[in-house]
Amino acid sequence: MKSGYALFLLLSIHISPINAQLGHPEDYQVVEAALNSLFSKGKFKYYHPEKPINPRNTNNPLHPDSTYTLVDPQTYKETVYSGKTLDSILFSTYESEIARYQLRDQHSKKLILVGTFRMDDLHRQHYFYRDSITYKEMLNAGIDITALQPYNWDVEQIEEHRDYFFRKLTDEHSHDLKYLVAAYVQVSNVVFNSDGTYALLEMGCHHKIHNGTTGGGAYILLSRINGEWEVFKTYGLWEE
Predict the structure, then answer these.
(1) Nearest C-alpha neighbor of 102 from the set 54, 172, 58
(2) Which of 76, 93, 145, 186 is disulfide-compatible with 126, CB 3.0–4.6 A?
(3) Residue 82 above 60 pLDDT?
């Protein structure tokens, strides 16, 4: 009996990756509603809030005739620079960084970089939740947690928020926009129930808080109310 019901449930689920591949607007409306809910909990700070420091204006004396040994923290490799070479590197780095920082003057909104989950990072083990209130509520809504998949969203189709605009995390120009970044967000595909009244996605977020970074991940269950998608409930999965 249980296996027959499970089969019926599986057949009745509408899974959105097929529709998303076609740019189905319903998927994007759900994502936009989930993001709006996330942003309503507070304004994110810039991920890199500090203005680059001009090495010419520091109290550190410059010694062009000296030599300096720097250690790469990743490889522990030592590199010896002359003072003149090191000063040149510091100045050129500052010039490129201050140019990136000045992009803030050209944007009235902060940047959200949207990325994709790896399959291993998605919480799709429905058996882990089968005895929990979370799983029972999703089951009652006709949602199949195991249908969650990684999805590469067309970020240009996500409507801008009044405080934020969006770029794809894999964008080759993301580093050039680093001083505009307010958060890094991962979004799974959207899973609908059979009659389109409920939708589920998994979302992860890393953002700035005070002098550190924080983040978390959650299932977001949305319901359609008067033709509009609204967050019905958020189920926390992890936080840092």
Answers:
(1) 54
(2) 145
(3) yes
